[in-house]
């Protein structure tokens, strides 16, 4: 039995970089550090190279490379080409549960922090919450994916899902100690906000 050739770390990294430059949302299996076959990687790279460069001031549009029709690589459907980057949804600070982007677990848990003062004022940061481990910073395209996924699932609904799943309030992360709060996923004060 011949073993499948796998893509090198460098190639996977290149694909991630290309995806960021081309404003392309990668399929979950490409963003998770899991091994990718060489064939998949080559296909994904060819696909990305054929995408228009994200518009930036002064840059002349790069002619799209001729790309062979896509073979069945599970990249997500292409979005309509945008002249300007798609604005990120505004997600308030809080704790969120969304369907796992990796498909490994059923839910993934995130903390969204919005900085209100200092040099990072106005910036949003995302940490992944993994049981028994320190919160793990999520950055770059991956963080944008998480924010979009929260918006898709619904901001309040994702907060409440966090609370219902873990027993901590999705807004303030305090323990939920009564049955109503646990079923609502949020403590009484935060529900009124
Ligand atoms: Zn609360």
Coarse morphology: elongated
Q: Note the gap between the termini.
A: 60 Å
Task: Summarize the biggest pleated sheet.
Answer: 4 strands, antiparallel
Evaluate the radius of gyration: 20 Å
Order of SSEs: HHHEEEEHHHH
- Percent helix: 25-40%
Order of strands side by side in the largest beta sheet? 1-2-3-4
Helix vs. strand class: alpha+beta
Mean pLDDT value:
78
Number of E strands: 4
* Distinct helical segment count: 7
List segments where confidence is low: pLDDT < 50 over at least 5 consecutive residues.
55-62, 73-84
Q: Which ions, cofactors or small ligands are bound in this entry?
A: zinc ion
Percent strand equals 5-15%
Structure in words:
This protein has helices spanning 9-21, 28-31, 38-49, 140-153, 155-166, 179-184, 188-192, and strands spanning 94-99, 107-114, 124-129, 136-138. It is of the alpha+beta class. It has two domains: 9-49, no CATH class; 94-192, no CATH class. Strands 1-2-3-4 form a four-stranded antiparallel sheet. A hairpin with a 7-residue loop joins β1 and β2. The longest helix is centred in the last third of the chain and has 14 residues, at 140-153. The protein starts with 8 loop residues before the first helix and ends with a helix. Bound molecules: zinc ion (ZN). Zinc ion binds next to loops.
